[in-house]
Design brief:
The chain starts with 5 loop residues before the first helix and ends with a helix. It is α+β, with helices and mostly antiparallel strands. Strand 2 and strand 3 form a beta hairpin. The chain is built from four helices and three strands; from the N terminus they run H-H-E-E-E-H-H. The protein has two domains: about 70 residues, Beta-Lactamase, CATH 3.30.450; about 35 residues, no CATH class. This is PAC domain-containing protein. InterPro entries: PAS, PAS-assoc_C, PAS-like_dom_sf, PAS_fold_3. It holds the Pfam family PAS_3.
Length: about 110
């Protein structure tokens, strides 16, 4: 059966920030929202948005955690394509050398 620890499934570049956001919410209570890449069974990463709320009782102990996780891969791909289209228009209208613009686009 396919099982790995959660940490191994979250992209290494995203894990620390994601945990920092969750830990802040656990410590203070309140709303949290973060996103990360998650490794699927087919060894491909998908983008997920994780948001929720940590509710504490009068003694400041965690009473309830509720939230949702959404696959936002299509949204991220669309934003990347839109960013590329915008970069191409800017390169053409501002006569910016393509090599320089291409380097900026590839760093997205």
């Amino acid at each position: 059966m396919y099982r790995k620890k959660w940490k191994e499934l979250i992209h290494a570049d995203d894990f620390d920030f994601m945990m920092e956001e969750l830990n802040k919410a656990m410590k203070k209570g309140g709303i949290y929202k973060t996103s990360y890449r998650f490794l699927r069974k087919d060894n491909r990463y998908r983008f997920f948005e994780h948001e929720g709320i940590v509710i504490k009782n009068k003694k400041k102990n965690i009473f309830w955690i509720i939230g949702s996780i959404r696959d936002i891969t299509d949204k991220v791909k669309l934003q990347n394509r839109t960013g590329l289209a915008g970069a191409l228009v800017k390169a053409k209208t501002h006569r910016e050398p393509w090599a320089k613009q291409n380097q900026r686009v590839n760093s997205l």
